Amino acid sequence: MTTDVDRPRTRARPPALGYAIAELPRALFELVCLLPGHLLLKRAPHGDGHPVITLPGYRSDDSAMLALRRYLRRWGYAPYPWGLGANLGIGYQRIDYEKRMLAKLEAVVERHGEPASLVGWSQGGVIAREVTKQRPDLVRQVIVLGSPLADAPEATTLFRVFRRTSAEEITNELMSMMREVASPLPDVRCVCIYSNSDGIVSADIAQDLVSPNVENIRVTSSHLGMVVNPMVLFIIADRLSQPKDDWRPFNMYALDRLLGWSR
User: Fold this and answer.
1) Which is higher by pLDDT, 141 or 255?
2) pLDDT at 262
3) For residues 123 and 144, what is the distance between their CA atoms, to the nearest angstrom?
4) Which tens digits make up the pLDDT trace of 244-262?
5) Distance (Å, whole) CA 169 – CA 157
6) Which domains are seen in the chain, by residue range?
């Protein structure tokens, strides 16, 4: 696991077929690892109580990120599901989900009186970023897990599924809209957690362009298992716990010391 400080954008390629085929068994293994990983997650950094909204991936709903929300509550945050049902927000439907998510964000921020953090998995991360572009004043931090962020949506297994199952015609206008996700966030910190062995979203497009507000963190994980992978959950806890006025990059060596792997 490494933190990429200055990784240039490379030409996007679809995930390897072998990784895509192995997605489900790998995710089940990561889920099993959550049991022993609970000891690590109990020791994860705690936060300041600010609200955190989770956004599920394509065709999944709030139940997919239930484990994360339970840990968020344990770590001292006020977790919220997005509450919009299954995420079908690809193509033109994404615009409707963005509007509804923005209304949810506004309600949560009004209730707590402070900006919320957004944690989006896969396509949920895309929607989180697009909502943040509209109202950056309402968002403290965005954390995305295996989200397709570059202007190459075709470099995902997800896009191939969308192309075969969607009633929408794949036009140049639609592709142009889908490529807009590559535009940077306005002065809001964004943490991109990605995996080179992701079988759904190519690691080449799951990283944001380097800037002072961007941190790309590589992990070893399947795509489907990111929301239960103990290492990913620990990183989320660590990043959410960073003070707004004293933010520091993720330090994997601090995690080594916590686990007793180094002295």
Assistant:
1) 141
2) 39
3) 9
4) 888 888 987 666 655 554 3
5) 18
6) 2-240 (3.40.50.1820)
Closest C-alpha among 234, 190, 181 to residue 210: 190
CB atoms within 10 A of CB 43: 11
pTM: 0.87
pLDDT at position 58, please? 87
- Show the 3-state SS of the chain: CEEECCCCCCCCCCCCHHHHHCHHHHHHHHHHHHHHHHHHHHCCCCCCCCEEEEECCECCCHHHHHHHHHHHHHCCCEEEECCCCCECCCCCHHHHHHHHHHHHHHHHHHHHCCCEEEEEECHHHHHHHHHHHHCHHHEEEEEEECCCCCCCHHHEHHHHHHHHHCCCCCCHHHHHHHHHHHCCCCCCEEEEEEECCCCCECHHHCCCCCCCCEEEEEECCCCCCCCCCHHHHHHHHHHHCCCCCCCCCCCHHHHHHHHCCCC
157 pLDDT above the threshold of 90: no
Residue 8 above 50 pLDDT?
no
- Give me the helix-helix angle, 123-134 and 93-112, nearest 10°: 60
Which residue type occupies 203? A
